[in-house]
Design brief:
Blueprint: H1 3-15, H2 19-34, E1 41-42, E2 45-47, E3 56-64, E4 67-75, E5 85-88, E6 93-103, E7 107-114, E8 117-122, E9 128-143, E10 149-161, E11 174-176, E12 184-191, E13 202-209, E14 245-249, E15 253-255, E16 259-267, E17 280-284, E18 291-296, E19 299-304, E20 313-320, E21 323-333
Length: about 325
């Protein structure tokens, strides 16, 4: 048996795992123990959509063409995905995650692109949405119908998260692409497949400058602005007690030492009977604790046994949603 085989056997006997599993386990332990101490760890990062904190390392910041790129590293259980926008609360910068990989089941590592513009547009309901994005403008060469080469100026490619709002963007949709909201661009191509990574991914819009600026409709930072659709507030529910009356029947003299039963029936303004009313019996006086009450549906049985209450009166009421819809006055009299 070789030395390597002996090592493998001892490891399997001690941990029951493979060398690969043991290496992954040890690497994760080492990473977690040093992750927060590394100079590249950034404690100021939150998710743009939720403001939840993201523990991450950001390093290797560099310029690539017109864009600024950085490398990001997170622990394996982070919620970062391609298409996530994160915010650095220290530098006040937004970053778009443009690729991300699981590195050996130990951690995640990928690429961030610095957002250099905020795209404004309206939802179908008219709410103005504000999306940090990556705008890359280029000059491209094309041919016209006579096969003459032409330079197409003002072509922009904008990357955004692919989500429930951006997926509604179609060709010919117009946007402002300048700091002063005077230069408008129209979408000539929507690419939502090339960067379709993971659960979110990216959408890339190709836009070309148009000459359709209209100060009456292109305003508030969006093109073809329309007033938000407002939903009128729900009307207050009708007061079901407004036309409800309670008729309590029973002897208005309650003898000490004897019980009496009282019955309630309900009707509306026209005197028609109303059934299935949710109500409460209520005795109003400062000695209610000395009145025995036995309730059974639409009836209540009352009894007083204290002679000192002779001559006192109280109200027997019916409450519906806390409102008094009927009452009678009952007097306590001497028992014969």
């Amino acid at each position: 048996m070789t030395a390597l085989e002996i090592f493998k056997k001892r490891m399997l006997n001690s941990s029951g795992s493979t060398i690969r599993d043991e290496n992954i386990k040890n690497s994760k332990i080492l990473l977690q123990s040093t992750f927060y101490e590394d100079p590249s760890f950034n404690p100021h990062i939150t998710f743009w959509e939720s403001d939840d904190k993201l523990d991450c390392r950001i390093f290797s910041r560099k310029k690539s063409s017109n864009l600024v790129i950085s490398t990001i590293q997170t622990l394996l259980d982070s919620n970062l995905v391609v298409g996530s926008i994160i915010f650095d609360n220290n530098t006040k910068e937004y970053w778009l995650c443009t690729n991300l990989f699981n590195i050996g089941e130990i951690h995640k590592q990928g690429e961030l692109t610095l957002c250099n513009y905020t795209l404004l547009f309206q939802s179908p309901e008219g709410v103005i949405l504000s999306y940090p994005c990556v705008d890359n403008s280029t000059n491209t060469i094309g041919t016209d119908e006579d096969s003459v080469l032409t330079t197409l100026n003002g072509v922009h490619r904008v990357k955004l998260p692919f989500d429930e709002n951006t997926k509604l963007i179609r060709e010919a949709r117009r946007f402002f692409l300048d700091k002063y909201s005077t230069t408008t661009y129209a979408v000539t191509n929507v690419n939502n497949t090339t960067f379709n990574y993971g659960s979110k991914g990216l959408i890339e819009l190709t836009l070309q400058q148009d000459s359709s600026y209209n100060r009456d409709t292109d305003k508030n930072g969006v093109c073809n602005y329309f007033e938000p659709i407002t939903t009128p507030p729900n009307p207050d529910p009708p007061d079901e007690t407004a036309n409800l009356f309670a008729n309590i029947t029973g002897n208005t003299n309650l003898k000490v030492g004897y019980s009496r039963t009282y019955l309630v029936n309900f009707s509306d303004n026209d005197g028609a009977a109303v059934a299935d009313v949710d109500f409460e019996w209520n005795v109003e006086c400062n000695f209610a604790d000395k009145i025995t009450q036995t309730i059974s549906g639409n009836t209540i049985k009352l009894q007083v046994d204290d002679d000192s209450l002779i001559g006192e009166s109280f109200l027997l009421c019916i409450l519906v949603d806390g409102k008094n819809v009927g009452e009678i006055e009952i007097t306590i009299v001497e028992g014969f």
